Amino acid sequence: MKPLSILFYLCLATTAFARGADRPNILFIIADDQSPFDLKVYDPKSALDTPTLDRLAAAGMVFDGAYQMGAWCGGVCTPSRHMIMSGRTLWHIPDKTKPGRNPLSADPKFVPTELASHTMAAVFNEAGYDTMRTCKRGNSYAAANRQFTTVRDATKRGETDETGSAWHAAQVLEYLQQREASDDRDPFLIYFGFSHPHDTRMGKPELLAKYGAVNHGDKNRLPPANAKQPPLPVNYLPAHPFDNTDMNVRDEVNVSGVWKNRDERTIRNELGREYACSENIDIQISKVLEKLEAMGELDNTYIIYTADHGMAIGRHGLQGKQNLYQHTWRVPFIAKGPGIKPGSRVDGNIYLLDVLATLCALAGVERPETCEGNSFKPVLMGEKNVVRNVLYGGYCGGKKPGMRCVKQGDWKLIRYESADEGVSQTQLFNLAENPNELLIQHHDPKVTAMTGTNPGPHQVNLADDPKHARKLEEMEQQLLTQMRLHDDPYRFTGQPMDAPEPEE
Fold it and tell me: Which GO terms fall under molecular function for this chain's record (predicted)?
């Protein structure tokens, strides 16, 4: 080989090595069913101890406006994880069944037929990253999950290390040890998912004891009361005040340990179980971060912590994730990594579907053409506070059209409708004045005696208040605009019947 050719190939090799060494690693951590308000970084009064996440927040950025767009089925995890993997919006993703519960899922005009080959792992594989995942099985995007080079999935919701969250951490630790042993210098993307705190919330005995909870399984008895149990949420209700179009979904009637019960003992015990599972997750994350630090990889790794959606557990008299209140529509979201200012806090106004575009931007990887999300790298770098001004959410896993919401600034509108059941309800909240979306039912002396909350007169649903009629009209128009923008295939009474229809 001529000297010039040798020099050329040496330069190529050096450039390739530098590119691999300089590009950041990515650790994407996702819990299953966790309200942001469980965490002290969102509710300083929370009894839940998560020192690892607290340190992560102190070293990085906390998002106060992170959302998952919604669901067209009761298993909210499924569309949420499809959106994360593909970077596409609610009505532009496939379903695991055909025809899908998303009416548009089989129409290539809305959902590309080869979408899986343009999802998170496929994109990063092509860019030279090593990709690995561990998470629960099921209620996810199976075709996208298979794109990871290393897959170690299993549903682990038990109370031991082998049957619980420690198993997921062990998979990541083993993978990192293998990289270390082989001197693997490629950048990595690790999808570090947990099966908890999704029910059944089988907490470890020592953590259950800390939060005064038991792994309750007797449907004919209430769990024991215990002063150590977390207090009731400030927006607790003994029952939701109206049919929200999906009151008989599994999460509302058949979660082991809760079932249809919404009494104080049941809810506080279940919160204790949730907290025990969440603290265990925090412990497992700490092990992985310590390993990355020992390997010298921590400083060059972007770390994201989030959940696939929030959770009610007694808030507004609900138990599950099939609603659009802030405790469930919002998700926890913490990010740390190169260029992110420690101890920073932003609104963000991001969706989980923005993650793929953002990871591509952070890694210098070309985003796929199929990706519809907005990169929030400018927010992470302190250049912007938000990536959008209006947020849309939808849920129609029960009766149709179901629930929709829109948020602009401090104002939020939620509509509920079921033609079959005759349900038609509207809620309007000023979140600056009423952040917990309190209703008139929260003012009941029996409820305030249980929660210790004394709502102000303005902390109610404002939809029927004549003083806010103009704002109501404005938000209803904004909802329609967002439904059109996102190809929502349903319409509410009073809206134009211009919804998109799939091709036969």
Answer: arylsulfatase activity; choline-sulfatase activity; glucuronate-2-sulfatase activity
Size of the chain in residues: 504
- The domains found in the chain, sorted by start residue, are 25-392 (3.40.720.10)
Q: Which residues are CB-neighbours of 411 under 8 A, at least 6 positions away? A: 428, 429, 430, 431, 471, 475
- From the list 8, 83, 12, 84, the residue with the least C-alpha distance to 92 is 83
Token digits for 70?
A: 């919604």
Nearest-angstrom CA–CA distance, 362 and 339: 10
**What is the distance between the alpha carbons of residues 339 and 448, in angstroms, rounded to a whole number?**
45
Answer whether 348's CB lies under 8 Å from 379's CB. Answer: yes
CB-based burial label for 20 (10 Å; 0-12, 13-18, 19+): middle
Whether the CB-CB separation of 340 and 64 falls below 8 Å is answered with: no
Which amino acid, 51?
P
* Half-sphere exposure of residue 448: CA atoms within 13 angstroms, side-chain side: 12
Give Dmax (Cα) for the chain: 89
Annotate 295-359 with DSSP letters as a single string: HT-GGGEEEEEEESS---TTBTT--SS-S-SHHHHB--EEEE-TTPPTTEEE-B-EEGGGHHHHH
The count of other CB atoms within 10 Å of the CB of residue 91 is 24
Over its length of 504 residues, how does the chain's per-residue pLDDT go in tens digits?
444 443 333 343 333 333 455 899 999 999 999 999 999 999 999 999 999 999 999 999 999 999 999 999 999 999 999 999 999 999 999 998 777 799 999 999 999 999 999 999 999 999 999 999 999 999 999 999 999 999 999 999 999 999 999 999 999 999 999 999 999 999 999 999 999 999 999 999 999 999 999 999 999 999 999 999 999 999 999 999 999 999 999 999 999 999 999 999 999 999 999 999 999 999 999 999 999 999 999 999 999 999 999 999 999 999 999 999 999 999 999 999 999 999 999 999 999 999 999 999 999 999 999 999 999 999 999 999 999 999 999 999 999 999 999 999 999 999 999 988 899 999 999 999 999 999 999 999 999 999 999 999 999 999 999 999 999 999 999 999 999 999 999 999 999 999 999 876
The dihedrals phi and psi of 386, each to the nearest 5 degrees, come to -140, 160
